[in-house]
Amino acid sequence: MSRLIVVSNRTPGRGPAAGGLAVALRKTLAARDGFWFGWSGKLSDTPSEEAHFDDIDGLTIAQIDLTREDHHAYYAGFSNSILWPSFHLRLDLATIEGHWYEGYRAVNRQFARALLPLLQPDDIIWVHDYHLIPLANELRNLGARNRIGFYLHIPFPTTDALYAIPHHNELMRDLSRYDVVGMQANRDVTAFTEFADHQSPSSLSGNPLRSVDFTRTETAAFPIGSDPDAFARLAVTPAATKMVKRVERSLRDQKLILGVDRLDYSKGLPQRIEAYEKLLANDTRFRRAVHMMQVAPPSRDTIKEYQETSDTLDAICGRVMGRFSEPDWQPLTYVKRAYGQPSLAGLYRLARVGLVTPLRDGMNLVAHEFVASQDPANPGVLILSRFAGAAEIFPEAIQVNPFDTDETAEALRMALDMPLDERIARWTALMEASRRHSVDNWAASFLARLSPDTSGGVGVNRDMLYLASTA
After folding, report:
1. 459 pLDDT exceeds 90?
2. Superfamily for 4-225+439-470?
């Protein structure tokens, strides 16, 4: 079996994996020869020319250091101030600085130069996320002929939003150098194909370019999931049960509405709290009968737009507390720190409603984790944004437009009033979908497409819009 080389912006640290990407890939890489390559998290005066290896919790990790200037341009600059908002259709929040693109490419070039000497001819390389779009092109320019796949963990933008990104044609040409490009949902593949079919003319943001040739790149949707059975077991561990009992004491007989998200403007948190406010305003029987908990640890809090989101959320939570609180009842709890997975699993299991309402999201693993953690005999209800990738595989959730806070408020009422038999029927279908799209199946389906003996060079084609894990 060929070695597997996983490449991402950051390599996993010691201890339990916290992020969705790390959780998803640890198990896959642990079962194969190979290593994980990426940035060490360290900033140095000079960029690393060679990777240094480490063993972290049984995984072989190869890491490089970045300079502070390069990291700022590549990460905070082009990746998170241009690509992230644009891919999430928030062009109003994009900040464009011309030199950031040069830093972005320079870091990808540094990754390629440090990775190339470590490669064997039959290695399979799996590159992850928007930070590293140019990596295959840089490796190809250095002579790499390996099979290289790319997986985008965030949504792919519409064509108009893509056109607004500086050097978008170069980025799309970079994607064409991959053998397989995987995305979260069919809507993302459709957006990608629309660009491939109707490419834009050259602009002042880059050199004049010929049309990008995608005929050798296979593009498909590979919905990523969690490990639902592991989460189901986690939800009844002593650590999870301890959290359940702790919160039950404070709730008494109130039904819990739960949201768990990074503090990010794409997650729709202000709109979510406004919907809860409307529920309490429109139907007084829910006062004292429900309690909302929003867990939102800070994310990229050095970036202005994230600070503004935090300030807005603080103000809205304060307004709801001031409007509805009683001496013996508080309508909500807002927690600005992260919990470990056992504690989260306990909270998911206790919640009558899981409120997952991003304005736009790649997949959203919280939806998977909530479903997996439920008590089969008395499950909670998932309210899900139709703009999350998970909406394509979870039609049995109550799907809402998160921008319409009246609709979300009504969905909350429906979920809180839903009879047990309907809750069980919906949860059963959701759990089946979560198992079907588990992380193991996701990784196996992507790597099956990327393996040399299954490559077909079929390219981007409208007849190939499918969920790869069910094909």
Report:
1. no
2. Glycogen Phosphorylase B; (3.40.50.2000)
